[in-house]
C-alpha cells in the first residue's frame, strides 16, 4: 500500500481524512499564483476606477452610467473574491467550512447581481433607442438607483434561500478535509438555471435584437436626411447618434458577458445535484472571472471620459476643490 508523504496531504495530521494535493510542479504553482494575482489586482483596480469616476464627477451622473457603476461594483467584488483563489494554488482550502460556504454564497450573489444589471442595461438601451421621446421621463436617476438597489437586495435574498442548507450546516457535503464544496438540489438548480440564466438571457437577446433593428432604421433615416435637414443635424440627429453609439458600446459589453457566462451555466448542473467545488475550478469559471476584467477595458476604448477620469484620479486632481464639476465629456 502506498504511503502518502506530508507534502501530498492538505492536513498531514489527518492522514485518513485529509484531501490530497494535486500533483503540480513548483513552476506551475508560481505561474498560477502570478497570473491570479495579476488578474485579481487588475480587475479590482479598473472597476474601482469606474466606481470612483461615476460617483465623483457630476457630469457622469446619468442613468446609463449609474447602471455601469452597479455592474462595476459586482465586477470589483469578483476581483476581491479571486484573492481567495490565490490561497488555493496548492489545491487545499484552509479557511474552514463557514468561509467556504460564505465564499460560494457571495459568488452566487455577485453572479445574479451581474445578470440583473445586464438586464437593466438592456432595458435602458431599449427605451433610449425605441422610445427616445419618453426616455428622460421613464428612466431617471432616482428610478435607476431604486432598480439597482432592488436588484442587489433580491440577489442576496434569493441566493440565501438557495444556499440555506449549506448555510445551516457548512461543510456537510465535503468528502475530505481541505475540500470546499457546496451542493444545490436538482429542483433548486433547475429553478436557478431559469431565473438567473435562461430567463434573463432571453430578455437581453430579445431587447437587443429590437434595439439593433431600430438603430439600423435610425441610421438609414439620418443618412437620408443629412443633406436636407442640416439645421436639425446638430440637435436631434446628434442625440440619436450618441444614443446609438452608447447602445453599440453596451452591446459589446453584453455580448462579451454572455460569451463568458454561457459556459459557466451550461456546466453548472452535474448529475442529480449541482455540485460546486472551488478547490478544482474548471475553465468556464475562470472565463466568468476574467469577464469582470474585460468590462472596464471595453470602456477604455469606447468611452473617452473614462480615460480622462483615470488621468484626473491618477494625478490626484480629484482632491482639488470643485473637481467634481470638471468637464470630462
UniProtKB/TrEMBL annotation:
<keyword id="KW-0807">Transducer</keyword>
<feature type="transmembrane region" description="Helical">
    <location>
        <begin position="108"/>
        <end position="127"/>
    </location>
</feature>
<keyword id="KW-0812">Transmembrane</keyword>
<dbReference type="Pfam" id="PF00001">
    <property type="entry name" value="7tm_1"/>
</dbReference>
<keyword id="KW-0297">G-protein coupled receptor</keyword>
<dbReference type="InterPro" id="IPR050569">
    <property type="entry name" value="TAAR"/>
</dbReference>
<dbReference type="InterPro" id="IPR000276">
    <property type="entry name" value="GPCR_Rhodpsn"/>
</dbReference>
<comment type="similarity">
    <text>Belongs to the G-protein coupled receptor 1 family.</text>
</comment>
<feature type="transmembrane region" description="Helical">
    <location>
        <begin position="139"/>
        <end position="163"/>
    </location>
</feature>
<dbReference type="GO" id="GO:0005886">
    <property type="term" value="C:plasma membrane"/>
</dbReference>
<keyword id="KW-0675">Receptor</keyword>
<keyword id="KW-0472">Membrane</keyword>
<feature type="transmembrane region" description="Helical">
    <location>
        <begin position="286"/>
        <end position="307"/>
    </location>
</feature>
<feature type="domain" description="G-protein coupled receptors family 1 profile">
    <location>
        <begin position="46"/>
        <end position="299"/>
    </location>
</feature>
<keyword id="KW-1003">Cell membrane</keyword>
<feature type="transmembrane region" description="Helical">
    <location>
        <begin position="66"/>
        <end position="88"/>
    </location>
</feature>
<feature type="transmembrane region" description="Helical">
    <location>
        <begin position="183"/>
        <end position="216"/>
    </location>
</feature>
<feature type="transmembrane region" description="Helical">
    <location>
        <begin position="246"/>
        <end position="266"/>
    </location>
</feature>
<dbReference type="GO" id="GO:0001594">
    <property type="term" value="F:trace-amine receptor activity"/>
</dbReference>
<protein>
    <recommendedName>
        <fullName>G-protein coupled receptors family 1 profile domain-containing protein</fullName>
    </recommendedName>
</protein>
<feature type="transmembrane region" description="Helical">
    <location>
        <begin position="30"/>
        <end position="54"/>
    </location>
</feature>
<dbReference type="InterPro" id="IPR017452">
    <property type="entry name" value="GPCR_Rhodpsn_7TM"/>
</dbReference>
<keyword id="KW-1133">Transmembrane helix</keyword>
Amino acid at each position: 500500500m502506498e504511503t502518502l508523504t506530508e507534502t501530498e496531504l492538505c492536513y498531514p495530521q489527518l492522514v485518513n481524512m485529509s484531501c490530497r494535493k494535486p500533483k503540480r510542479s513548483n513552476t506551475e504553482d508560481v505561474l498560477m499564483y502570478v497570473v491570479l494575482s495579476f488578474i485579481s489586482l487588475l480587475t479590482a483596480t479598473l472597476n474601482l476606477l469606474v466606481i470612483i469616476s461615476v460617483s465623483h464627477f457630476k457630469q457622469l451622473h446619468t442613468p446609463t452610467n449609474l447602471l455601469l457603476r452597479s455592474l462595476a461594483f459586482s465586477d470589483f467584488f469578483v476581483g476581491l473574491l479571486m484573492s481567495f483563489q490565490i490561497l488555493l494554488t496548492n489545491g487545499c482550502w484552509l479557511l474552514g467550512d463557514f468561509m467556504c460556504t460564505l465564499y460560494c454564497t457571495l459568488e452566487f450573489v455577485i453572479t445574479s447581481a451581474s445578470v440583473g444589471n445586464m438586464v437593466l442595461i438592456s432595458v435602458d438601451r431599449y427605451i433610449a433607442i425605441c422610445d427616445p421621446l419618453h426616455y428622460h421621463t421613464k428612466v431617471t436617476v432616482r428610478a435607476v438607483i431604486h432598480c439597482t438597489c432592488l436588484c442587489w437586495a433580491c440577489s442576496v435574498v434569493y441566493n440565501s434561500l438557495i444556499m440555506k442548507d449549506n448555510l445551516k450546516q457548512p461543510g456537510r457535503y465535503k468528502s475530505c478535509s481541505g475540500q470546499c464544496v457546496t451542493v444545490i438540489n436538482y429542483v433548486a438548480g433547475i429553478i436557478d438555471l431559469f431565473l438567473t440564466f435562461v430567463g434573463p438571457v432571453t430578455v437581453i437577446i430579445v431587447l437587443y435584437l429590437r434595439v439593433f433593428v431600430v438603430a439600423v432604421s435610425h441610421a438609414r433615416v439620418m443618412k437620408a436626411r443629412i443633406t436636407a435637414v442640416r439645421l436639425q443635424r446638430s440637435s436631434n440627429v446628434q442625440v440619436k447618434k450618441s444614443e446609438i453609439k452608447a447602445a453599440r458600446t453596451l452591446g459589446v459589453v453584453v455580448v462579451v458577458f454572455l460569451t463568458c457566462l454561457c459556459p459557466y451555466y451550461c456546466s453548472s448542473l452535474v448529475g442529480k445535484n449541482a455540485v460546486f467545488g472551488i478547490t478544482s475550478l474548471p475553465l468556464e469559471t475562470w472565463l466568468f472571472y476574467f469577464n469582470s476584467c474585460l468590462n472596464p477595458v471595453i470602456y477604455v476604448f469606447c468611452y473617452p471620459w473614462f480615460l480622462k477620469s483615470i488621468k484626473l484620479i491618477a494625478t490626484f486632481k480629484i482632491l482639488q476643490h470643485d473637481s467634481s464639476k470638471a468637464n470630462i465629456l
